[in-house]
Amino acid sequence: MPRQDGRLPDQIRPLTLKRQFTRASPGSVLVQCGRTLVLCTASVSDRVPAWLEGTARGWITAEYGMLPGSTRPRKPRERGSGADGRSTEIQRLVGRSLRAITDLTALGTRTITVDCDVLDADGGTRTASVTGALVALVDAVRSIEALPDPNRFPLRDSVAAVSVGLVDGHTLLDLDYQEDLAASVDLNVVMTGAGRLVEVQGAGEEATFTERQLSAMLRLARKGTDAIRRQEQKVLGRHWPFAYDA
């Protein structure tokens, strides 16, 4: 099936990760995935949520938002506790994805907050947020000078995310906005570097799908997250903290 940007069905969009994009946060990365742009920043606090006090465990959380000019027409700015349901769902997804690969005891009694702000939306903002969040998180953790055990890095694995969908009967990797609109089935897959699934979000839009189609989509997602992980390792360079090569 020909795609409007010329990609093959199993190709991800051009991916660029600009690390240390801002100065104020110990971890930051500008993610460009096709025409989607997301800024991810990671901040470290020496406090933990009240329900974690006294447990000697840390916490990782995330916030997600789309800036007003990221879509057409303009998206109203989310203020205070006014995050919409979609934003809340996505920031929880990002937080879960990061905690899945973190030893929270090795992190110590501190909180890392990853903020994912969408600058330009052309599909895949949640998956781009997970990918950028991993890079920002690695740099934020490396900035911590007093880990409980300096020889025990808190991150156990990497994580990446990608979308897969069925469009006109064809299985496509890394959907842009127009492909997402046309998809009869849309799947968002979060996977660790070791190939373990963190989360699979999938649904049919006035359609159903078979186990065989699901398996095919998951195989394609694995190919996509492998490609993304190689980009994560490339941008982190000597700071890539995992024993395996991407």
Question: What's this, in brief?
Answer:
This protein is of the alpha+beta class. It contains five helices and nine strands; from the N terminus they run ββββααβαββαββα.
Overview of the structural elements:
The strands form two sheets. A five-stranded mixed sheet has the order 1-2-3-5-4. It is an alpha+beta fold. It is about 30% helix and about 30% strand. It has helices at about 85-100, 105, 125-140, 175-180, 210-235; strands at about 15-20, 25-35, 35-45, 60-65, 110-120, 160-165, 170-175, 185-190, 195-205. The chain is built from five helices and nine strands. It has a single domain (about 15-235), classed as GHMP Kinase, N-terminal domain (Ribosomal Protein S5, domain 2), CATH 3.30.230.
Overall outline: globular
Number of domains: 1
- Assembly of the depicted chains: single chain
Count all strands and give the number.
Answer: 9
Instruction: Determine the structural class based on helices, strands and strand pairing.
Output: alpha+beta
Strand adjacency order, main sheet: 1-2-3-5-4
CATH topology: Ribosomal Protein S5, domain 2
SSE order, one letter for each helix or strand: EEEEHHEHEEHEEH
Q: Count the DSSP helices.
A: 5
Say which CATH homologous superfamily is assigned: GHMP Kinase, N-terminal domain
The description of the largest β-sheet is: 5 strands, mixed
* Straight-line distance between termini: 29 Å
How much is the radius of gyration in Å?
18 Å
- What value does the average pLDDT take? 94
